[in-house]
Amino acid sequence: MAYFRPPGPPPDPALVRSLTAQQQELRQRVRAKPLAHEPHLIGGCDSSFPTPETILSVFVVLKFPSLELVEKVYSYAPVTMPYVPGFLSFREAGNVVQAFAKLINKPDVVMVDGHGIAHPRRVGIAAHLGVLLDVPTFGVAKNKLTGTFAEPGPEKGSITPLTDAKTGELIGEVIRSKDKVLPLFVSPGHRCDQATATRLTLACLRGYKLPEPTRLADYWAEEFKKEVR
User: Fold this and answer.
1) Which Enzyme Commission numbers does its entry carry (predicted)?
2) Which of 86, 149, 169, 202 is the least buried, fewest Cβ under 10 Å from its Cβ?
């Protein structure tokens, strides 16, 4: 997800307490498990902020495993929550849900541009959305949010574990998606497990750094911005 990070005063402590409590409740609902069946449709979603006051959320749906584009939709709306570090999913989730509601073809699993459980409180945007939508989700992020890892090998397909620095818990995997490019951080969201998240990420690579569902969501976000400007 492409976040807008405005400068400003520290967040309201009462708001932080409320969001923390909501994340803790969401975390209790997150489930890690394999998909019930191989997906026929895979979704990709991404959000960006065309202006500091607005958000654009995009969903694409692709056939799997051919990755043929089936559908693309977006939702454009005012931003309703201030920027609070660690709680960025709350700025995006509502609008992403609105975009999902526009889909005629509902995906069997959704790849989210962002983190799943690889989050300080184990509820990144992919996990958050999975619980709200009650669909299988996993996150593919371009940057680490938390955890420790060894750099994977330089060739495409190299993988190393992403673990909690204190407990050693596996919270994701670090994947080299293209030779000699910076790696991706893949973690399960909801109703998905790590093995599935990693397998689907690798299966969706087509010569770019980003797998097709999130790459195309990002591409169409740029195209849809032309419509809302």
Assistant:
1) 3.1.21.7
2) 169
Hey, which bits of the chain come out as E strands?
Answer: 41-51, 54-63, 69-78, 109-113, 137-141, 159-163, 170-175, 184-188
- CB-based contact 220:72 (threshold 8 Å): yes
**Residue 73 to residue 174: CA distance in whole angstroms:** 29
Tell me: is residue 46 an annotated ligand-binding position: yes
Domains in the chain and their CATH numbers? 41-145+184-228 (3.30.2170.10)
- 179: annotated binding-site residue? no
Between vectors from CA 209 to CA 140 and to CA 118, what angle results, nearest 5°? 20
Adjacent-strand bridge partners of 98 = none
